[in-house]
């Protein structure tokens, strides 16, 4: 897999093309600039997240709770996309198995909480732990299987798990699986929103550091060149497995939160569509890019919801369009266009902007 | 606060009631027009639209036009709640009319019940709405029959009218299929016959050879097909290509009661029985046929949408000019006693009973057309 | 890492055989390299030189034989474990981490010397960050040593081939390996820099005590630095010994060096370069 | 015994269909490194096209078949030009997801222009109802057609890829597009040809599948896509005979299991249940892959350093 | 034969070649020398059409190449042995050679050419059915050269052909270069680190530095130039 430079990796080619100029400069300056930019961006982002509910209340009035609830969904998908990106974009495992953790975790939470009457927090904890454990189970064979083989095998896993969850529903005589007795604050759309995004921000922050640490470098090394990674002492087994476990646990958390958000669990959470959506998120956003996970989650997770808002039937002149039946196609077309115009993901937009900024910054410096 | 709990509070009651203005009533529907149930839901939506257009053209209901807002949940029950919330919190709908899929309808009902929003016609053959009756789900009214009742009637019909002794069952491997398996078995046993073999299938299954051979080995007189049009048709095709035909042929349950299915089967489907509960013989059926004469083929799902839209419109009508959720509930609970649905069976709702119709008739494929071959049989009569 | 000081060779290869399908790439090879030695492995294309290196660093499993390094049997260890014994290497076809910057390539190479795991990695402070800071310094030092500091923050993949070659060396060197395996470090490097390279190899060996196993087709470099040479042909040892003697061996001239070298030997005579 | 043989034959036929489906998938995968998830939609579109020719234009079956087989490669060329070419140099995942998006678009287009195909329709062929009887064994004519066509296409395509100049160039393209261009091969034209061929194969597969079950609708290919992919991976993904063998294996095993497990239980577990059966098949698939990660007939990926 | 005028080439916003002009007469061997990063490979890529040029002209036998894709340039008789070999790893050695002859049609001639290449590089003969990915560095380089020769080019561009080759094979390669030039009139542009040998076979040479030509002239003259000796021949 070849990798276009992402936001985290770019450096100004113009500057570096003239080594003499570059070498006179303090090493680390670019990094500092970049870090400052990242910091500024993150703080702006967090502030925006904090004030969003207020803005919504002003703007949407009585429907603001529902609109926020909808936005919370993006947070859940960001987690799932982040998990997929760590596994696929960084550690280069083309696994399509994540929806299995997504579904299983939701079922475990619902089972513990609704059927066994356990507290919600225990449910979440167990769900995430079980997902991590499943991550080991899936990851271990995946160490022997690679490439498209792994993709198809894990896709098979997802549908098999979906079938089994459905079988469980069937034998238990369930038509749907309600997640009842949530803690009160999770029944409130505002607090649910803050809860989910607090988790998202935390995990993005921690992931950022992890990916820039020894572990993250080991993953990227495996992605770039397994042989060299091994020759430099990186234990492929260990690091691939770690990526699987972290990704599974994170997807599990996303699954549990999704069940909380939807107040129900369904075997369709572990379906080919769902798992491919996770992959689509990081492809659209940008493989191996944190910003990419966020942008991809918004595009893939939220765009269909927005399209669902289109009035149906829609009148264009005298021509009556049944939008509702065309939504899938419109979505597919938009997806296709993004992939054609941003083959390395929407995050490359950010990188382009960043490059431009950096060029201008460094230009100033040379004059000064 | 603006729940319309008190209809007499102001001079212009409509202003207080969500989704009801002086000239429109907004109602919401959750129909999967984008996911796996698209095949069923898209024609239902078209049928709904057809009827409401007709009503609106004639001046609406009590002077108000009906505006149907439909949201798709992709057939995925985890998205149903969001869809329903959109209808009531963003689009400000008055009542919920149709949610497709039993599980999805359950999710929707937990929202509408808590908010005391009337929910008419959950599209699903699950038994929950019948079993729970009006007491547990005071805000849900079911129009269609359930698979359990149907199983009883089919068992009765096969034994008493067709004199079958052994019956095979192919069922879709979900809660509904299992429910029919149980009730069909009970009913056969009571009538001195038996369910000699039953084979479940997955919705995505393509190869039915093993199922055919398993059935064949059990020598049933007739095979009951429970599920959806595609897979059941594949089963018949597979059996035919292996030279197998049960002595008395097949009987399919109501989702197959559509001429399109008969056409799909081709010659292999001749003489197959189908259980059904909607007939186009009555005036509304004729009216529908006229309205859709341009369609290439008759769609039972579209007809389903049409007649249910009629039931719902009648209810709105009966709820009166001062429309509130309570007045609608009142009308639904009290003004539907032996109500003539216009497609055959009659419908009775009381405050304690919100179940749908439970009368079935049987059709037979003759020259690729479904032809009615029995009268309506009431489930309550064969299985008290 | 167990510091077993012991007499005898640092690296000892015995009866090593490697087969790929019907092809015997290495045939019953014996090699011994003493600590601190610069040992050159030369021979015709396809003789099996790279394969020997791959066996040592664990990328290929030999059919038979043993490889002992500082008292450890390497063949019973996995590739990544061998690196932590202090074996660093470069690759004939570069194999850099192309999406990383040059600096990150070097940081990654110090993997075995660092310890931060996931738990300290996710934190914005603490051990992981301390380790990183000091490693960064070491990496910069190594780059300076090779005159590559101006490339530190460039993406590796788009650099000129010759520069990438040197980065490969820097990446191996940043480990401070006990045994450094170099696969054709001078290929694609311009002649004037080859001399510089030779001087550097010598000085590492002097200052750091690094043992070097060098594969090279550039005889200038080999002559300039090697203490001993082994010529491999069809997976067998053709000759072994001091450069002057081996490189004037007629069999070596015929199989490997060709007429040009023969001429040169006759004209100039091969001298062992001073360090 | 007869029943058992009947199940085996059906397994062979279904497996061949899987194998036939994967021919086109493996062809594109081997030449361009794209896992083409739109393949099912392309097959469906071609079969639907033929259905329309048969029912709306009321053409004779053979004429409709001929027109469809002309239409399919044209469709392939249009898709290549309009869709595949722009993402030719994109990373592999991007291409895979793009094919998925394409599938969504194609399905919507079919439904928009031929709304009747949203529902299941009858697809009739001259072979319908015809069968050979061997003792108690029924072998329907369409099954024989499927077996023969699959074998012929597999052999022909394999020879083409291994022996012909164009075939070698197609494989070369998968290794390096720039190098292929340096050899004077027009990558664009080859790419177009690959798509044309693969659409042609998709059309044949779609028509045979529709002909076998006499059913068709927009999504009728979807359910067989995953088992076909599994068969291809089992066979090794880079070998055409391999993917046929893999496909047949999947078809055979799932049919036999369905037959043998029907009606049996272990304790309270109904092992005849399709959910359990599918899980068993999947477990078997994973075990085979663990033993042979490159698939039954695949070559292990070689990366020299 | 080849005429390059004011060629500007780069990657993205980075310009690597800043207006290069030179001519290669029919039947000449031209060497291009320069240190790492001078832009030699970039020049080769631009000539063969692998990367677009930003400004300037390239003419092959008075035919402008600028708008021709790489595959068309090969058909015009221009072949490249690329840096880093760019073999078809999953194809066998033989299939790689056949790919080299993609534009040719006579099976007999192709077989004869394969035979000729195998006698020049006997090492390849033993590896004929091996996948190119399994070759050793030098074997791969031999194959890359052989593959380019299979197209019977009129102008051959060689980007460090001696890279990774044993001295005896380097000799062979330079012999082949001279021989093809002498006997078949093949025009050759040669990029080499091995300046000694390059200047030995070349008629003229250009020295590239930071994307500009800083020196050019007869190979023998340049060989004698002390600056050249110091900078590019290792003193
Ligand atoms: N994985 C493999 N599969 C098949 N053959 C291989 C493999 N690896 C190496 N070979 C073969 O083994 C022989 C030795 O290869 P090796 O790379 O060790 O040669 P080398 O001495 O390094 O040559 P060079 O100087 O050209 O790099 C070659 O003929 C090569 O083709
Ligand atoms: N793919 C690329 N993307 C961006 N920049 C590149 C790319 N390839 C080369 N460059 C840049 O172009 C410049 C010239 O590189 P080029 O490879 O042409 O040098 P060269 O003369 O061939 O060097 P060498 O002798 O090391 O092969 C360098 O600054 C390099 O970083
Ligand atoms: C309309 C019917 C086919 C719906 C079906 N009975 C279900 O519950 O999903
Ligand atoms: Mg080598
Ligand atoms: Mg170069």
Automatic annotation (TrEMBL), chain A:
Note down the stretches annotated as region Disordered: 1-21
Q: Which residues cross the membrane?
A: 39-56, 68-88, 95-114, 120-138, 150-168, 192-211, 243-264, 276-307, 319-342
Instruction: Write down the Pfam families for this protein, in alphabetical order.
Output: BPD_transp_2
Question: Where in or outside the cell?
Answer: Cell membrane
Main location per the UniProt record: membrane
Question: What membrane topology is given?
Answer: Multi-pass membrane protein
Q: Which UniProt keywords apply?
A: Cell membrane, Membrane, Transmembrane, Transmembrane helix
Gene Ontology annotations for the cellular component aspect, listed alphabetically? plasma membrane
Task: Identify the domain of life.
Answer: Bacteria
Official protein name in the record: Branched-chain amino acid ABC transporter permease
Organism for this UniProt entry: Dictyobacter alpinus
UniProtKB/TrEMBL annotation, chain C:
A single GO BP annotation from the record?
L-alanine transport
Give one Pfam hit by family name: BCA_ABC_TP_C
Is-annotated flag, keyword Nucleotide-binding? Answer: yes
The reply on keyword Transport is: yes
Assigned keywords, A-Z: ATP-binding, Nucleotide-binding, Transport
Q: Which InterPro entries match?
A: AAA+_ATPase, ABC_AA/LPS_Transport, ABC_transporter-like_ATP-bd, BCA_ABC_TP_C, P-loop_NTPase
Q: Which SMART domains match?
A: AAA
One GO MF term, please? ATP binding
Quote the cellular component terms of the Gene Ontology held in the record.
plasma membrane
Q: Source organism's superkingdom?
A: Bacteria
PROSITE patterns given for it? ABC_TRANSPORTER_2 (PS50893)
The ABC transporter domain extends over 11-259
Record-linked PANTHER family: AMINO ACID ABC TRANSPORTER ATP-BINDING PROTEIN (PTHR45772:SF7), CONSERVED COMPONENT OF ABC TRANSPORTER FOR NATURAL AMINO ACIDS-RELATED (PTHR45772)
**Stated name of the protein:** ABC transporter ATP-binding protein
TrEMBL record, chain D:
What biological processes does GO assign it? amino acid transport
Q: Which InterPro entries does the protein's record reference?
A: ABC_transp_permease (IPR001851), BCAA_transport_permease (IPR052157)
Q: Where in the cell is it found?
A: Cell membrane
Q: State whether keyword Membrane applies.
A: yes
Keywords from the named record: Amino-acid transport, Cell membrane, Membrane, Transmembrane, Transmembrane helix, Transport
GO MF terms, alphabetically ordered? transmembrane transporter activity
- Mind telling me which GO cellular component terms the entry cites? plasma membrane
The protein's topology relative to the membrane is:
Multi-pass membrane protein
Please give the chief subcellular localization of this protein: membrane
Query: Transmembrane region positions?
Result: 6-29, 36-54, 60-80, 92-114, 134-161, 190-210, 216-237, 244-262, 274-291
Return the similarity comment: Belongs to the binding-protein-dependent transport system permease family. LivHM subfamily.
The protein's name in its UniProt record: Branched-chain amino acid ABC transporter permease
List the source organism: Dictyobacter alpinus
This protein's encoding gene: livH
From TrEMBL, chain E:
UniProt keyword Ribonucleoprotein, yes or no: no
Q: Name one GO biological process term.
A: L-amino acid transport
Against Gene3D superfamilies, the record matches this protein to: P-loop containing nucleotide triphosphate hydrolases
For this UniProt record, the keywords arranged alphabetically read as follows: Amino-acid transport, ATP-binding, Nucleotide-binding, Transport
InterPro entries in the record:
AAA+_ATPase (IPR003593), ABC_transporter-like_ATP-bd (IPR003439), BCAA_Transport_ATP-bd_LivF (IPR052156), P-loop_NTPase (IPR027417)
User: Which CDD domains does the UniProt entry name for this protein?
Assistant: ABC_TM1139_LivF_branched
Q: Which residues form the ABC transporter domain?
A: 2-235
Identify one Pfam family in the record.
ABC_tran
Q: Which domain of life is it from?
A: Bacteria
Q: Which GO terms describe its molecular function?
A: ATP binding; ATP hydrolysis activity; branched-chain amino acid transmembrane transporter activity
Q: In which family does this protein belong, per the annotation?
A: Belongs to the ABC transporter superfamily.
The identity of this protein, by name, is ABC transporter ATP-binding protein
Organism (species): Dictyobacter alpinus
